[in-house]
Amino acid sequence: MPDSTQHAAKILIEALPYIQRFHGKTIVIKYGGNAMIDDALKESFARDVVMMKAVGMNPVVVHGGGPQISGTLARVGKTTEFIDGLRVTDAETMEVVEMVLGGLVNKEIVSLINSHGGKAVGLSGKDGDMIRARKLSSGKPDVDYGHVGEVESINSSLVETLEAERFIPVIAPIGSGSDGVTYNINADSVAGALASKLTAEKLVLMTNTSGVLDKQGRLLTGLTAEQIDHYKQDGTIQGGMLPKVDCALQAVQAGVKTSHIIDGRVNHALLLEVLTDKGVGTLIRS
Ligand SMILES: Nc1ncnc2c1ncn2[C@@H]1O[C@H](COP(=O)(O)OP(=O)(O)O)[C@@H](O)[C@H]1O
Ligand SMILES: CC(=O)N[C@@H](CCC(=O)OP(=O)(O)O)C(=O)O
């Protein structure tokens, strides 16, 4: 056998148990804005999602786009502020967030997946009344996040219908309040809540670090609830990593089998995580 055929056969043999184990199972993937760095990586992500669907898994994509929102705000001369990893969102910022996430970023991902042979459908949490949100309180008297929301409830019937028809849902993290107000929700939180609602097999959060790192920059390959608490208190975990570990933990506590924080800057990181036993990031257990 030529070397390349042997190599492909070896990969397939390694992947087979995972393909069987995850057949028909839902895997919620959070694709962070920081992992959408260049065209080659975006292509690799789209190929991985299509491949997962082709072998019988049900990938559901929730995307971010924080850097893309910040870029557009800067172009229109608007400053933006993050507190504990969340963007303080006034009414004008909310309009930009909805345009960038629900429009540009969502449709770019849908097009990429479709150009690789998938059948992606782009949605925001408003479609099918999927994400009911309420205003998020900062818990501090002097901090008002504005239009930042938290998930109140999820109606997953639209996602389930799409999955059953072999579509790949691609969801922008925007929700409506019962008061009709539009809310900007951190994409990690939406992915976690959706994974819990769907009792997904896995929640995979793709970001721009090799996983959760300790103070010396070493990868923490596994984290429990107690360790997360400890690393939050001593400041090891901060900023954008805070909503990530919180929702990853909530998801496993709600019945999702495993949550993973992985490096979206690595080619085919998603397939490596799902189809091999090479741990490529941080695994979070309840
Ligand atoms: N302990 C930690 N390990 C890794 N990254 C951390 C840690 N604490 C804070 N961070 C920060 O969290 C960032 C990831 O969050 P964020 O920028 O919101 O990414 P994304 O756009 O993928 O959601 C990392 O780039 C890093 O700056
Ligand atoms: C409330 C809040 O912070 N919302 C995020 C939504 C997008 C997001 O989560 O994007 P990433 O995953 O790329 O960071 C924001 O406005 O940036």
Short description:
This protein has 286 residues and is an alpha/beta fold. 41% of the residues lie in helices and 21% in strands.
Question: Can you walk through the features of this model?
Answer:
- The protein is of the alpha/beta class.
- It has a single domain (28-284), classed as Carbamate kinase.
- Helix content is 41%, strand content 21%.
- The protein contains 9 helices and 14 strands.
- Strand 9 and strand 10 form a beta hairpin.
- It is globular and about 65 Å long.
- The chain starts with a helix and ends with a strand.
- The mean pLDDT is 94.
CATH class: Alpha Beta
Tell me, rounded to a whole number, the average pLDDT. Answer: 94
How many distinct helices? 9
Largest sheet report: 8 strands, mixed
- What is the spatial order of strands in the main beta sheet? 5-8-2-1-11-13-14-12
Question: What is the count of β-strands?
Answer: 14
- What portion of residues is helical? 40-55%
User: Roughly how many Å apart are the termini?
Assistant: 45 Å
Tell me the CATH topology.
Carbamate kinase
Radius of gyration, Cα only, in angstroms? 18 Å
What portion of the residues fall into strands of 2 or more residues?
15-25%
Helices and strands, in order, run as HEHEHEEHEEEHEEEHEEHHEHE
Number of domains: 1
Structural class designation: alpha/beta
What is the correct CATH architecture? Answer: 3-Layer(aba) Sandwich
What is the CATH superfamily label? Acetylglutamate kinase-like
What binds here, in terms of ligands, is: adenosine-5'-diphosphate, N-acetyl-L-glutamyl 5-phosphate
Q: Which overall shape is indicated by the principal axes computed on the Cα atoms?
A: globular
Low-confidence stretches: none
Family: Belongs to the acetylglutamate kinase family. ArgB subfamily.
Binding site for substrate: 65-66, 87, 184
Main location: cytoplasm
Subcellular location: Cytoplasm
